[in-house]
Design brief:
single chain; 3 helices; three-stranded antiparallel β-sheet; Glutamine Phosphoribosylpyrophosphate, subunit 1, domain 1; alpha+beta; two-stranded antiparallel sheet
């Protein structure tokens, strides 16, 4: 999913239990985008833009692993809390996932 500004793109295996609370915080601070849906993924992306990745993760309660591509800096950030997250290289290809499959 892309953020509302299309600055960030996320791949997310998740459940953010308090995402409705986070949405309210974003709306109260006038940091919320025009919501396109009701997903916790969209809430997380809006938090990344408003508070930064680290602060948004600190505020989030749930089970998740993610990869976010920041177009502005041409970087990928991987993060997790209770979900596993595996990553590595296979030749010239960087692989990541919350499951190992052969």
């Amino acid at each position: 999913m892309s953020s509302a500004s299309e600055r960030d793109i996320i791949v997310f295996n998740r459940e953010i239990y308090n995402h409705l609370q986070l949405r309210l915080e974003l709306e109260k601070s006038s940091s919320a985008p025009k919501w396109r849906g009701h997903s916790d993924t969209e809430t997380l992306l809006a938090g990344f833009e408003a508070w930064g990745i680290e602060e948004t993760i600190k505020r989030s309660t749930g089970v998740f692993a993610f990869a976010v591509w920041g177009r502005q800096y041409n970087t990928i950030i991987l993060g997790r809390n209770k979900k596993p997250l595996y990553y590595g290289w296979q030749g010239d290809t960087f692989l990541f996932g919350s499951e190992l499959k052969i």
